[in-house]
Amino acid sequence: MMVDEQKITSDDLFKISASLSLIGDGLALLALKKAEEESNNQKAISAAINRLIRKRP
Please, which domain of life does this record's source organism belong to (predicted)? Predict the structure, then answer.
């Protein structure tokens, strides 16, 4: 009995990459909201925003 070997295409990899990127962006925004809730410290909030911005190529 032979099992059909499924190949991963570049389109599949792109979809996975895009999904993971969206998850990462969501987590970064959640971290920013949490920093805002935990502290009224503008420096901490600015640092969180800078980390989010630097993540982008």
Answer: Bacteria
Q: How far apart are CA 8 and CA 2, in angstroms?
A: 19
Q: Are 45 and 39 in contact (CB under 8 A)?
A: yes
CA separation, residue 57 to residues 6, 29, 32, 34, 50 (Å): 32, 17, 19, 24, 13
pLDDT at 19 over 90: yes
pLDDT in tens, 23-43: 988 888 888 888 777 777 777
Is this model's pTM higher than 0.85 or not? no
